[in-house]
Amino acid sequence: AQAPLALSDLCLAQVCSSLDALCSVRADGSMSLIWAPLFPQEMADQLLLKMAEKGILNDTSIGIFQNCKELRLRRASIRGCPLSAEAFHTTICPHRLLELDASRVSGGLTGADVVSGLSSSPECRSGLQRLSLSGLQLDWESLEEEGVARVGFSSLQGLRALNLSNTDTSDAVLEDICNLPHLETLDISCTPVSQLTALTGCRNTLRALVAHRLRQLDMPPASLLFVFSHLNALRHLDFSDDHFAEDDGDGRDGDEVVRQLLEGSPQLLPSLVSLDLSGRKRVSEDAIRAFVESRKSLIFMGLLATGVSACDAVSSQKNLKVTGEANEDQVCEALGRYGERECFVREALVHLYNLTTDAGQPQPDMLKLVVSGMRSHATSLHVHLVATACVFNLTTQDLAEAMPVRLLSSTVTQLLHAMKTFPRHQQVRGHAPYLAATLVINWLSSHEDPTLQRMAVAVISILVAKVKTPLAYCALVCCRENSAAAVSPLLAIVQQKAMVGVVDSTLKFALSALWNLTDEMPAAARNFIQCQGLELYEEVLEVSYYNEPSIQQKVLGLLNNISEVEELQSDLMEEDLLEHILSLLKDPQLEVGVRYFAGGILAQIASRPEVWMLDEELRGAVLQQLHESITTWTQPEREMVSYRSFHPFCPLLQTRQPPGVQLWAVWAIHLVCSQNTSHYCSMLEKEGLTELLKALASHPDTHGDVRGLSDGILRLVEQHQSLPGAFKNQTPNS
Q1: What is the pLDDT of residue 452?
Q2: Does residue 459 register a pLDDT over 80?
Q3: How far apart are CA 280 and CA 254, in angstroms?
Q4: How far apart are CA 105 and CA 82, in angstroms?
């Protein structure tokens, strides 16, 4: 069962969404709460974090924390937020901070700005215990250029944990850091540090050293082991490497250090209980076996991408946690520990995909790890390609139905983000809409909450419109053993709304989704009919919404899709239905959109006399009214319709067709080519319709109205062809 959100979370979310209404603006442009009660201290920290997570924390909004009496920060996170040095100094530094996470802050704030600002506060100098500047430029020189006295990390005498990964930390900075009297945890991963000798300065306090991918480390093995031999208090050592990176050297010095550490005496790093060697390519099973057997207190080993995580010496230790690829536990451990490291997330996801190909049980914890990896590396194409495949494995068939709704929501959100981030990558564009739509459809089948229902059908409507490739589209509607599962819950919503005659966004989104699902997809159209959708749509069209053009247009659009499928045209051969559609075509009071789709249905049905099963007089009336009505239409200014291809028009453009059928087809093609010339003229050329139009325009029996529009389309094509090549193959972003 899924626990409800905490009341405090709901309240904080409401404050964030209402911040503009709750605040006034100071003269400097920053925000100030109009009325601020005395917040519980932890709640102030949580509000700052919530604002950062929601992406609304910036120089303006952070101003509410200038009120240090009511909003007292102790554990502050401004991670990834766009903040200037001025806003940081004015707002954050006056607080009596114990912890600060300023990782990957944008907006010009540097590590030197942070240290300088914190050092200006006596409370922070002595009280700050944890500081993360991961991903920032330290840029000490900028302070010197501004005439600010340089201060170092050693001025923050209370520091116990410092994260400087992915910064420009130098050997000189490391020497300064190692003067801290209480330093217990240090992360210098992915920095240009070349010498670690300074670490001996904190040998009595340092308990955890993270030194992942030190590519500029320039110490012979003996010297590095000498440093390690002095770190008697060290319990965790991360000396892992990025196995994807192109080596500047062969990495043999680092590997030799690892070999000697594994095979050496337990008296080297005697307190060690955790060792991470992931990404080290030259680790042997014998060395791992020797190390594990000599360290009985060991609780963790990092062995991902080493090739030795399946070593029997490791698997036999029941209390030993391992990152690796030998089984699901090892892979999940890797995803949980290495969330910030793209190289290891990629590696773990590849193995997770292989391990979950035949997943039989819902595994929400595993899906949560995958989504977290996608979120942490939102711009990594490599991560998203593998992650979307893992999402498929973990949510296929009935697995998604047992997942918590909030987890499915975050999964869909991340898939939508992937579509936005990688709009031109075919595989992501195929995977992400299909997976997101499948998750929402599966969830919609078993939930009836009106609010969530409205959001779900909106997401489906948007997603199915974005699935462009036939393979992904087929997968979408055949996502389960019974492909009607994609259509049935949407029809149920339409029926529910039609019973009371309500017109709302949920109904409109459901109708749009069904319209898109059946577009050039015979399987989906067949499922629609099998689920009694045709009977429902007749009632919607003739009774429930007979005077609602916005609903009529969506209903007729879907019926138009069915009429394009030859083997389903007989299902539309109902006299009452066709007479009603004919009345819509004839009605001059209706907007062109409704009459256009009514005409499309009738043109498709009337184009095949061999399947016409009703009175011939009715067919004659249809053909006559098509011609008479279309000649009165005015082309709308806004886009009324879009097409995936012009294939359904080919039968209608044959020279043997009646003028009314031909006229509807050329009017439709002329409409879209006029509104989006580049895209649709390219489509005409690619699909060979220009030849059909030329034959139609030159045939002696072609009606003048048809010939005139055909010539107009061909002129648009010629104009398009005359444009420079750089403009010829543009397609819309949608």
Answers
A1: 63
A2: no
A3: 9
A4: 6
pLDDT digits (tens, 9 = 90+) for 365-383: 999 999 999 999 999 989 9
**Residue 24 or 485, more confident:** 24
Strand (E) or helix (H) holding 323:
strand 321-323
- How many Cα atoms are found within 13 Å in the side-chain-facing hemisphere of 334? 31
How are beta strands 23-25 and 31-33 bridged, if at all?
A: antiparallel
Non-local (6+) Cβ contacts of 159 within 8 A are 128, 129, 130, 131, 153, 180, 182, 183
What distance in Å separates the CA atoms of residue 62 and residue 240, rounded to the nearest whole number? 37
Please state the pTM of the whole predicted model: 0.72
Please write the tens of the pLDDT for every residue from 79-129. 999 999 999 999 999 999 999 999 999 989 999 999 999 999 999 999 999
pLDDT at residue 601 is higher than 60: yes
Amino acid present at 325:
E
The amino acid occupying position 98 is L
Sketch out the chain's domains with CATH numbers: 353-421 (no CATH), 432-572 (1.25.10.10)
- Phi, psi (rounded to 5 degrees) for 480: -135, 175
pLDDT at 228: 96
| C-alpha atoms less than 13 angstroms from C-alpha of 119 in its C-beta half-sphere | 16
For the record, the structure tokens of 719 come out as: 């104009």
Mean predicted lDDT score pLDDT of the chain? 89
∠ CA 137-141-143 to the nearest 5 degrees? 95
Radius of gyration of the chain (CA): 33
- Phi, psi torsion values for 487, nearest 5 degrees: -100, -40
Terminal Cα distance for the chain, rounded:
38
Tell me which DSSP letter residue 376 carries: H
**Number of CB atoms found within 10 A of residue 505's CB:** 12
Mean of pLDDT values over 527-544: 93
Q: Give the whole-angstrom CA distance, residue 624 versus residue 626.
A: 5
CA distance 208 to 50: 29
